[in-house]
Structure prediction request, 800 residues.
Amino acid sequence: MVQRVYRQIQESALEARVVIATSVSQVDSIRSQLGSEVVIVTEPERRDTFPAIALAAAYLCDRLKCGREEPVVVMPVDPYTDMRYFETIAQMERAVLDHTADLVLMGITPTYPSEKYGYILPLQDGGCRFVEKPDAARAEKLIHQGALWNGGVFGFRIGYLLGLLSQKGLPDDYQALYSVYGTMRKISFDYEVAERASSIAVVPFHGVWKDMGTWNTLSEEIREDIGQVICGEGTDRTQIINELDIPLVALGVKDMVVAASPDGILVAGKNESSFMKPYVDQISRRPMYEERRWGYYKVLDYRAYGQGVHSLTKHLFVGAGKKISYQSHACRDEIWTIVEGTGTLMLDGHTRNVRRGDVAYITAGMKHALCAVTDLHMIEVQIGDELTETDIIRHDLDWQ
Amino acid sequence: MVQRVYRQIQESALEARVVIATSVSQVDSIRSQLGSEVVIVTEPERRDTFPAIALAAAYLCDRLKCGREEPVVVMPVDPYTDMRYFETIAQMERAVLDHTADLVLMGITPTYPSEKYGYILPLQDGGCRFVEKPDAARAEKLIHQGALWNGGVFGFRIGYLLGLLSQKGLPDDYQALYSVYGTMRKISFDYEVAERASSIAVVPFHGVWKDMGTWNTLSEEIREDIGQVICGEGTDRTQIINELDIPLVALGVKDMVVAASPDGILVAGKNESSFMKPYVDQISRRPMYEERRWGYYKVLDYRAYGQGVHSLTKHLFVGAGKKISYQSHACRDEIWTIVEGTGTLMLDGHTRNVRRGDVAYITAGMKHALCAVTDLHMIEVQIGDELTETDIIRHDLDWQ
Prediction:
């Protein structure tokens, strides 16, 4: 989704600088998808959309030296849209520049009385009423009254948001806001800003808009099952995505979403899938699959033994020409077995060429780096008493 | 199940020799559960119950030197029963010895008009009528007429079955029958023998009998979910077994069975789960988890690269005092990393002690064996152009 939206912005007539606000866990994945030059504002932790947008506004002003009068349009990465969407964003920019209102929203023309979206009902006095997830009858009535879906797209001047921060007694410079970020209230931009704004305008969008942000909405767009899936006897109106390397058999599964990935398995009724967040929040475990600047890793196995000893096994893929940076680990040994490809390995200052079948034994404290010459796969076995992604000491290295 | 039934037979008053008929893929697992002294007749391939029982009868006569007049009771390993079941089997043995009939069946007193079982209706002429999986109304009527569930338990003299083989033009000696096994028709003992028998008797059983042979019946007996399972919002009347190391979230899942294991994932309505066989038969892949005499292995990763090269990664557990036999592989190198425990490794005639952190590089053709001193875990990385369980050459080895 981020690749598509990024490409669409570049193909549009917008002369926009793109800044991505995201959490720290997504940074490597986004850089590997969009390139290392993309500008990212990293949220130190997840605190909903108002803190995230406020931090990004402060970053634009302090770090990118944008003026307080410059317009910003905030857009989510979830929806699938056609190019007219970006023309509407240009209209929103003009509305901000023209001082039409402090806050400019995009309203999506509803195609059916969905119970899943928020509605914006423009009022006669120029204001708006917001209605979250109405039932079908209420939605029908709202549409009849001229209500639009809230697309979560907001336009404003940077100074408007920084002013709001000052009003709330919060710092409006980036570094200070970053340092109090963990104390900010978890609240959405809709609740904290849009529903309280006194000067508001809505720009309607009539084109294709499909929300890919929940399984419930995404599954309407998926035509075929993905992965090793066998649907039999009585399976109907069900979307299955299987990213695991094992087969999935579905019998008598109706109106459901089934998603299996290295991080976990979801089996959910389409309606109930929208309410998964609190259950998923109960799961606190290390990531099992992550994209990195250099490729990706997948955790294959994790075991705890006696005396606090653990082993962890990963499959690593390093793209041709990519590098794993020079690093060492305090609490673990690593045994690397190259299973495909060729590369150059640096161990404590000495380089050697490696290829399929080669094994490297990297003890705790030993500095190591890898540069893949061709696409390279390896199995990494970690042994130690603390096996975390944070046990990593970076070292400088100038590859010849 | 096999452990419980085996123990119950030993605790019962039956003075029976137990012989297990099973397929080759189950042999190691059964020996590791019941001990290496258990007598197993191995079916060269799956061909339903008539060929399997016939082969076992020939084995009893030829290899175990049982007389043709000796009684045999064939019982499936699936049902959960109380000890009275084994008293009924003793009654069946007496009925065979008393020449009550050529074939003696066990009839389970029905507790409800199940649509899932076969029914035996004893007729006035001393014969029986068999009705497979009737609908509820027909089942009700059958029970009213005195029908019993077919428990799949059969008693006969060995010579009776060997005689049937001769009548059908099939050999009745073990070696000859084994060699034509692959040409025998796939047919159940019920259809081939019971439904055609002219001399038949039914011994009723009134005790506890629960079929654990299908998910549908098994799930009635499972009270709690097993493994990392989070049930939320609207999940009801559903049994979940998760043997994977990743969490499973179930929302709005009703009247279903969900089973996730290293071999695959099943998501099925309880009714539809009985019809999974043809779909599972479509899956032809290597086993992902197997119990062995020495412990177990679990496949973690399998990849195919260019030029026919593959890599396969396993986690192996070898119990203290157990041995992996002396062997070599023609088509692959193996890299073993010991992640826990201690043992003795034999490589091309040389022994060395190994412990956590040690790595062994076993090239194609190199003879290797392992004896675990303590419980031992290792990660095995295989690299080669053919990675199968059958690429194994056994060698003699006399550990000192």
In short: Chain A is about 20% helix and 35% strand. Chain A touches chain B through 63 residues (CB under 8 Å).
